[in-house]
Design brief:
This protein is of the alpha/beta class. The protein has one domain: Rossmann fold (3-Layer(aba) Sandwich). It is about 30% helix and about 25% strand. The chain is built from five helices and seven strands. Helix 1 packs across helix 2.
């Protein structure tokens, strides 16, 4: 698990199941107002990671890509909400602001795919995860925290992952 630079963590997932397990661990630590930004080309594993995040966060809802509906909303038994936004079809930050991102962020964690398309509408502090295809079953994930909350979140995730090593 090499460190590329201070406060950055790189991980190579060896399977979709492993990508989901990492997402589950990340989901355990999410709270309302958390923003997770996922970048990467089509097929890089973003939705697979979101499936794990949502499960770890506590929903039993089926997770799908919100490409055509823009936002999927997932619930858990305590009536908390997790929001999954796909910004691929948005052309500007103004379009994102029409979605009332502030309200979404204030009421539940927000996961954004293609965040670079609306970055000026997102909080300055968030966790960015750059995903890329390595091989048929392998995906590279580079975690980049922006802000104290996200450095702490990443540290918890890394500690959890290290504890699970054989």
């Amino acid at each position: 698990m090499p460190i590329l630079q201070k406060d950055t963590f790189e991980f190579i997932s060896r399977s979709p199941e492993q990508t989901q397990r990492i997402g589950i661990r990340l989901g355990w630590y999410l709270h309302a107002e958390d923003v997770i930004c996922l970048t990467g080309e089509l097929g890089s594993g973003k939705t697979t990671l979101v499936k794990g995040i949502a499960k770890g966060w506590g929903t039993d809802d089926a997770v799908t890509s919100p490409t055509f509906v823009l936002i999927n909303q997932y619930s858990r038994p305590d009536d908390s909400e997790l929001y999954h936004l796909d910004a691929y079809r948005l052309n500007s930050s103004a379009e994102a602001e029409d979605l009332d991102l502030e309200r979404l962020i204030s009421t539940g964690p927000l996961i954004v795919e293609w965040p670079e398309r609306i970055s000026s509408s997102l909080p300055s502090e968030s966790l960015w995860i750059e995903m890329s295809w390595v091989a048929d079953e392998q995906r590279q994930m580079v975690f980049k925290p922006k802000g104290k909350r996200y450095r702490e979140l990443l540290n918890k995730l890394m500690e959890n992952m290290i504890k699970s090593l054989p």
